[in-house]
Design a protein that fits this description.
alpha/beta; Rossmann fold; five-stranded parallel sheet; two-stranded antiparallel ribbon; 9 strands
């Protein structure tokens, strides 16, 4: 992992001094994305991530609702990140929920084109002397009795782990961490972290909603904190810019 980390001295491969500001780009789906006013209180974990960093780090959240590795690339969103990402920046890559869907515009084979697409994200970062980091998908809230199911996002977390190990890419295992967190909360308490609303509780959802994929503000903050914890446990030097709180 360490070979892909920046040095705190901000020197890139060409020996040039790098900017004092480091940007973490987030490429992902609705679990991380910034939400529009008509979707609140739905909140993506990426919206809460800036809170944990010093002023030396900027979070540029490019995650978009409904995107998979396939659609994110085909819509030119990865190309746009590549256009602006700088040496020493980071690209956090988290997909799986929409790759899982039986949709020809989004669906991928976890050990087929999903692997190819992950490679495209990694290469885009490396070609700009930036650092790719893979994040397994956040668990969906799916319980059988009082126990979370083992594969709530199908094979995609394991497929990402396989890719990371094969190609020696840093990986933050958010799937395992979030699954454990939901198990610790239990079937009923875990509802408090997702978009579960009664009728007339929110003007955006007058009929109420029971959504076990997307988070409310508390859930988004809890997942962002898991990403922070995973960073602390990693060898990524960007963790040195986390606030000491």
């Amino acid at each position: 992992m360490a070979k892909y980390c920046i040095s705190i001295t901000y020197i890139n491969k060409g020996g040039k001094e790098m900017p004092n500001k480091i940007t973490i780009f987030i490429a992902g789906d609705s679990t991380a994305a910034i939400k529009q006013a008509d979707k609140r209180p739905e909140t993506g974990w990426g919206e809460k991530f800036q809170h944990f960093f010093t002023d030396s780090v900027l979070i540029d959240n490019r995650a978009v609702n409904g995107r998979s590795t396939k659609s994110f690339i085909e819509e030119g969103r990865l190309a746009e990140i590549k256009r602006v990402i700088q040496p020493g920046d980071y690209l956090f890559i988290q997909f799986g929920h929409n790759d899982q869907k039986p949709d020809p515009d989004r669906g991928t084979n976890p050990y087929g084109d999903y692997q190819d697409n992950l490679s495209a994200f990694v290469h885009a970062a490396r070609e700009s002397d930036a650092y790719p980091v893979l994040l397994t998908s956040v668990a969906r809230r799916k319980f059988i009795e009082n126990q979370m199911v083992e594969k709530s996002v199908g094979e995609y977390p394991d497929a990402m782990k396989y890719f990371a190990k094969k190609h020696h890419i840093p990986l933050l295992d958010i799937y395992d961490k979030s699954r454990k967190l939901l198990n610790d909360f239990g079937k009923e308490q875990s509802k408090n972290y997702f978009l579960h609303l009664s009728p007339n509780e929110s003007s955006n959802y007058p009929d109420g909603i029971s959504d076990d994929t997307h988070f409310n503000e508390d859930g988004a903050l809890a997942i962002a904190r898991l990403v922070k914890e995973a960073l602390i446990e990693s060898e990524l030097l960007i963790k040195n810019f986390l606030k000491k709180v």
